[in-house]
Amino acid sequence: MRAVIQRVNGAVCTVDGEETGRCGAGLCILLGIYETDTELEARLLAEKIVKMRIFRDAEGRMNRSLLDIGGEMLVISNFTLCADCVHGHRPDFMRAMNAEEADRLYEYFISLLRREVRSVGTGRFGAHMHIASDLDGPVTLVLDSTDIFSKERKQG
After folding, report:
1. What is the homologous superfamily of the domain 2-136 according to CATH?
2. Within its chain, how far is the Cα of 73 from the centroid?
């Protein structure tokens, strides 16, 4: 799984003019799911994201997590994060998981977040979405579950 994480003052997702999800201060996450991803990757990524210390403390340093600030999330499925752009000029999406399995894993990822975070808004899987966000910082990070998994195996 690959996640683009943006610290936001707020974000909203609409599909065909209908709001599907929103969040206040917290994180907007674009989530790409690879064909090899499992529930383990979803769990490791969810745990990492909610505990990342990327919010300001009293001294202005990034030292607080989403859980520390009681923040919210908006999670958007985004298969284009799985694109291979190395060859030619047209992205190759062959490494992205098929839609049915990806939707199941996306919903599982969201269910994990909802156990920890008070408000988790979502997009609509497979739809053409419009995302409006008020970036804070801007703070934008990219996490890949294979990197997290490699570290966990070394420590385990």
Report:
1. D-tyrosyl-tRNA(Tyr) deacylase (3.50.80.10)
2. 9
- Domain residue spans of the chain: 2-136
CA separation for the pair 14, 155 (Å, rounded): 41
Q: Report yes or no: 97 and 145 within 8 Å, Cβ to Cβ.
A: no
Position 155 scores a pLDDT of: 61
Show the tokens assigned to 63. Answer: 């030292």
pTM for this one?
A: 0.92
pLDDT in the model for residue 156: 55
Rounded distance, CA 3 to CA 120, Å? Answer: 15
Single-letter code of the amino acid located at 9: N
Six token digits for residue 34 = 């690879």
**How many CB atoms within 10 Å of residue 83?**
15
Q: Report the chain's mean pLDDT, rounded to a whole number.
A: 94
Q: Give the separation between CA 143 and CA 156, rounded to whole angstroms.
A: 20
pLDDT tens digits for range 90-148:
999 999 999 999 999 999 999 999 999 999 999 999 999 999 999 999 999 999 988 87
Phi, psi of 11 (to 5 degrees): -155, 150
| Contact in structure between 74 and 21 (CB atoms under 8 Å) | yes
